[in-house]
């Protein structure tokens, strides 16, 4: 009987090590994903939204900003709609889609974030907020519009050339409304 239990013990250990190696390899592959020509990550850390928006890739651009996180059902529901907007504006170098993500408390938050970006093909720029950035972001938005409550998803339209700021922009499923706000900013 002791011999049989010892074999089960070793089998359990071997299976555990194999599972850990597989998980570890997947985790490293997922978190090391650096994007491609259509999915880009903001590499630097920023103190607040205005500092991020003033960074080099976004200077003199119009931005459609999506505040989201990887396990947010309403955020995920909207992911089917940006391709319609992106197709309409595909020849516009002056428009940038920027996804700013809340960092969940999940131990694999980075992995889940990058997996969601790939799964939903969220082409554009990506930034994951730390807690301090997020606190300042919501305070900044509320200082501009006291009716804004912290909640996801939220969409912004930012024109870095004219200074136009819309902190309560329509969601991507409201394609006509988003186009109506973006087109005059792009056609000046």
Describe the structure.
It comes from Robiginitalea aurantiaca. It holds the Pfam family Redoxin. Its main location: other. Keywords: Cytochrome c-type biogenesis, Disulfide bond, Redox-active center. Helix content is 45%, strand content 16%. It contains 7 helices and 6 strands, in the order αβαβααβαβαββα. Strands 1-4-3-2-5-6 form a 6-stranded mixed beta sheet, covered by helices on one side.
Secondary-structure blueprint:
Layout: H1 2-31, E1 39-41, H2 49-53, E2 62-68, H3 73-78, H4 82-88, E3 95-101, H5 109-119, E4 124-128, H6 131-144, E5 154-159, E6 165-166, H7 175-186
Parallel strand pairs: 1-4, 2-3, 3-4
Antiparallel strand pairs: 2-5, 5-6
Helical proportion? 40-55%
Q: What's the Cα radius of gyration?
A: 21 Å
Strand ordering within the main sheet: 1-4-3-2-5-6
Structural class: alpha/beta
- Strand coverage percent: 15-25%
- Shape designation: elongated
User: What is the total tally of β strands?
Assistant: 6
Q: Please count the helical segments.
A: 7
Largest sheet: 6 strands, mixed
Instruction: Let me know the average pLDDT.
Output: 88
Order of helices and strands: HEHEHHEHEHEEH
* Unreliably modeled segments: 25-29
Task: State the distance separating the first and last CA atoms.
Answer: 83 Å
Subcellular location: Cell envelope
Pfam families: Redoxin
Domain Redoxin: 46-160
InterPro entries: Redoxin, Thioredoxin-like_sf, Thioredoxin_ResA/DsbE_sf
